[in-house]
Write a structure and sequence with these properties.
With 132 residues, this protein is mainly α. It has one domain. The protein has a three-stranded antiparallel beta sheet with strand order 1-2-3, covered by helices on one side. A two-stranded antiparallel ribbon has the order 4-5.
Length: 132
């Protein structure tokens, strides 16, 4: 049975609403999103494979987009169509790559540059969040 936010709050009083991610809870280190349709489905909806793996409650590692292989290879991959779905990736991807010491493939860099104007269509709050 999936847990809802209210159940998680009762079970773990150290978790609070995450102001940066509506619908998520945080303890300051970890961010938790209840997945109503199942964890694997929620992971498949992620735009960056490196951000799409998790450990299920039974201990099984779920990695539907190949993010662990990317991490082992030291790269940050941007799947086709991801930038078009969320222009803010133009800020998020380079920042994340720098923070984690990962490389971005040249084809992905070209697509990020081509789609750079889409960053300006993202909500100002999202732009500010990614730049701080």
């Amino acid at each position: 049975m999936p847990l809802d936010l209210a159940s998680l709050r009762r079970a773990t009083p150290t978790l609070t609403d995450d102001p940066a991610q509506p619908g998520a809870l945080t303890d300051g280190t970890w961010r938790i999103w209840p997945a109503a349709d199942g964890l694997e489905r929620a992971l498949c909806d992620r735009l960056i494979p490196l951000d799409a793996f998790a450990v299920a409650p039974d201990g099984v590692v779920l990695d539907p987009l190949g993010g662990l292989a990317d991490l082992r290879d030291g790269r940050l991959r941007v799947p086709e169509g991801a930038i078009e779905r969320d222009g803010i990736l133009g800020l998020r991807v380079p920042a994340l790559a720098c923070e984690l010491g990962l490389r971005i493939d040249s084809a992905d860099i070209e697509r990020l540059i081509e789609q750079a104007p889409t960053v300006m269509r993202a909500p100002r709050a999202a732009q500010r969040f990614e730049m701080t």
